[in-house]
Amino acid sequence: MNEDLEHLAARAAAGDQSVLPTILAAIRPQVQRRVAKFLPYHEDAEEAVQDTLLQVANKIQTFKGTGSFVGWVTVVATNQARQTYRSLKRRSIEQSAELLPESADPRTTSVIAGSRLDLLEALESLESSHPQLVQPLILRDLGSLTYAEIAVELNVPLGTVKARIHQARKAVAERLTVR
Asked: Rounded to whole angstroms, what are the CA distances from 125 to 107, 117, 176?
């Protein structure tokens, strides 16, 4: 299936729009899994899925084929999930403080949801201080790409990828353990 998808993506990137519905249907489950790793609530994740599929459809011509299409979709989905999170966070801050509970009710708050939000906060912090470390970490630990695939995707040497991932993991771990 990946070979077929890579071929279809190359056709779409070259301008063949007739293959887009097939591509979008094929990547939808992967995109859903990817954004669900960031966004704990189904409705939020679905918003990010729709935005990701729209981005893929609108930006397919930017796929150059230097890396895998799956890797490219991983980057798009991850970035869109993070953008959706930022938007949701901004909207919640804009809401009146009296509408929000003073603290989360532990009986209704998922431990998994909390850890995902902590990860998003850690990634936001990392991006503000060391933006070059975020993409390699996401591609490796959330996208499950190999180091070699990441090097190709980001067009950087393999050693640089390994170093950036190591630095990113260290920074995120520090952020997640400091409470």
From this structure: 28, 12, 11
